[in-house]
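Good morning C.,

I know you're traveling, so I'll keep this short. The sequence:
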Amino acid sequence: MARHWSRHCVASLSTPIVIDEFVFKPLNLPQHLAMLQSWFNQDYARFWGMQGMSLDALAQALAPSEHKLALIGEWQAKPLFMVELYDPAQDEVGEHYAVERLDCGMHLILAPLEGKPVHGLSGQVMQAIAELILEKLAFKRMVVEPDQQNHKIHRLNSQIGIRYQKTIQLRSKAAFLGFCSAQSRQLAQKTSALLMPRTATQATQVTHATHTTAVNPIILQVTR
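The tokens, ready to paste straight into the viewer:
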């Protein structure tokens, strides 16, 4: 399974992939490690469980293998996020469900906020990652296991079509087990389109409501 999963990814991800405004590049540990250490030490990154790790320990945790790899996502020519793709069959989460051959696990961390929040940016990142996994790499399901206490991420996951199947107890956290398929993603997009305002007045009302209830994107920036 691991060898098949690795072959499925490596050939496609050896060169940068552009999706919308984001550029996915292979993680370069010597280049990116110190930056990632600073990201993991942020309070919002506590759900990764990597706060306080040394550079050596972090390098070991993020080192690619035949069943996992990581990509840096750039936006406006700067690193904005890191996404880790992994074979659920070789991960603890695979002990909690029947893994299928074209399942791909996903972990995401975004950079600390710089300047003013960009409304909807976290959602755009998630959409790009879903497109990468389900369309570019042609996996059938994206698998996530967010911490149950990471309340902000649950709404974002729902918006892109991730559906939670059950609660699971991992060694480091109580989590939800969720899946996103091409079908559930399309349905979420259609539902979102139906909720779009039909008139200028409605648009104004929705825009006002969105601004008054907007959540700082930084809060939504971790799913693991």
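Safe travels,
E.
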